[in-house]
Amino acid sequence: MKPSDAETNPTERGPRGIQSVEVGGQLLIALAHHGRPLALKDLARQAEMPPAKAHPYLVSFIKLGLVEQEAGSGRYGLGPLALQLGLISLQQYDPVRLATPRIEELALLLGHTVAIAVWGNHGPTIVRVAEASSPVHISMRHGTVMSLAGTASGRLFAAHLPREQVLAADPAIVFDAALDDHLAQARLLGIAHSHDGVVAGVSALAAPVFDDQGRMVLSLTAIGPSGSFDLRLDGALAQTLKRVGLELSRQLGWRAVTP
Question: How far is 152 from 198, CA to CA, in rounded Å?
Fold first, then answer.
C-alpha cells in the first residue's frame, strides 16, 4: 500500500488546519510586521499573493473588525478587533512567568547560572534562579538585591531607568565617568557586564527585556567564574542572552524603534 504524504514527510504530521485561514493570515502578519497601513498592492506583495487574491480576504477581515480601510487613501491597517485581541494577549503575559522556562533552557545551554531580576523598592531584585550543573557558590537567592553600580543587572537597570528612579533606590550611587561609560555601552549594545565587580572571581552578563511601552521590565543575567566565563560583549554567551531577551520583548509587544 502506498504511504500517505504525512507518512513520507514527518513535517506534515499534526492537526489539520484550514488552508484558506492560513493564507489569509499572511495579510494580518504583514500588517502587524509593518505596523502601519499599506496599499493593497504593497500588502499583497508582502503576503506573497496577487492583489486580486488578497482583496476578498481583506473584505472579510474588515467585516470582522480585524482590518480597517482608510477612507481617503484606501490603505489597509489593523482594525479594532485586532487591537482588542492584542491588548487581551498582553494582559495575559506576565513577564516573569514568560521568562522563567527560558532561564532553565539558558542555564542548560550556557552552562552557567541564569537569573531573572526585576526592579524592586531597593533596586534590582532576584526573583527566579536557574542553576547550572556546576553552579557558582554565590548569593543568588530569591529576594537578593543586586548592586546598581557593581553588577551586570544593576548597571542594566541603571542604564534604562530614569536617573531619579535609580537615585531613589540607592542615594549613595555615584555616576562617575567609569559608570557612565558602562551605562552608555549597555544602552548601545543591549548588554551589560561586570568582572569581579562585587565578588572576586565572579563575572556576569545581563540582557534586558522590554514591554509594549518600551519599559525595561526584567533582566536575564548569566553568572559564572571569571576564569571560564565568556565576557565578550560580542561573544556567543552575550549574543544568546540578547536573542532570548529580544524574543521575550517581542512576545510582550515591544517593537524596535526605527529611524
Answer: 10
Q: How far apart are CA 144 and CA 113, in angstroms?
A: 15
Cell of 70: 482608510
* pLDDT at 9 (0 to 100): 45
Cα–Cα distances in Å, from 162 out to 152, 157, 167, 208?
17, 9, 9, 15
Helix then strand then coil, in percent of the chain rounded to 5, is: 45, 20, 35
Query: Which of residues 133 and 134 earns the better pLDDT score?
Result: 133
CA distance 68 to 61: 8
Answer with the residue of higher pLDDT: 213 or 9: 213
Q: 230-246 burial by CB neighbour count: b if 16+ within 10 A, else e?
A: bbebeeebbbbbbebbb
The DSSP bridge partners found for residue 221 are 115, 206
| Residue 136's pLDDT band (cuts 50, 70, 90) | low
**pLDDT tens string 79-97:** 888 877 765 665 555 898 8
* Opening angle at CA 254, ends 230 and 161, nearest 5: 70
Output the pLDDT for position 199.
Answer: 76
Distance CA 208, CA 136 (A): 22
Residue 123 zone, left/alpha/beta (φ > 0; ψ -120 to 50; rest): left
3-state secondary structure of 10: helix
CA distances, 57 to each of 17, 22, 44, 77 (Å) = 17, 11, 11, 13
Tell whether pTM > 0.70.
no
